[in-house]
Predict the 3D structure of the following.
Amino acid sequence: MDVSLVLIVIMAVLFGCGVYAMLERSLTRVLIGFLLLGNAVNLLLLIVMGRPGRAPFYGTADDMSDPLPQALTLTAIVITFAVSAFLLALIYRSWQLGKADTVEDDEADIALRERTEVEEDLMDDEVDLEDEDATTDFVGVATAPIRVLHAKDHAALVDDAPVDVPDPTPDDAGARADRTTDDDRSPGEGDR
């Protein structure tokens, strides 16, 4: 596979600049960084595709191009467009509310930054060993969020759901056809 060194260098520069721009506090720079990362991913998929060839549905197997990187590139373009539109909406709303597009620290960020190593160790030690044995959050029946009720649990419930019954044997078929119960009749049939 012949890969141009220039494409690899351009892809690496795009990745580096995109990551650097995304680490800023300005949402506009985050958007620019995300667009650079999206283009770097598209270039990576172009490099992975290898030598260009004929369309995948035409020609022999030797000179065909691989359709998977093409599909992944189209998917990456759509995802980049959708996230860019979302970031543009965030930038617009941030500008409307605060006349700035920078992300400021709130009280939780400041408290987290000021936490000491002793407090960090205390947070790690708060794990109970009893919780590790449970496979679910709802251990007992009394604490389960969903309880299936049946007619025997509550008098107001009517349990008339159809039940699977095995097919009758030939001996039972004649005897069963003679008997007709209220359940076998259609509604309104017994009213006449």
Summary: Residues 67-98 form the longest helix (32 residues). The radius of gyration is 33 Å. The helical segments are 5-22, 27-49, 67-98, 107-113, 117-125, 129-133, 170-178.
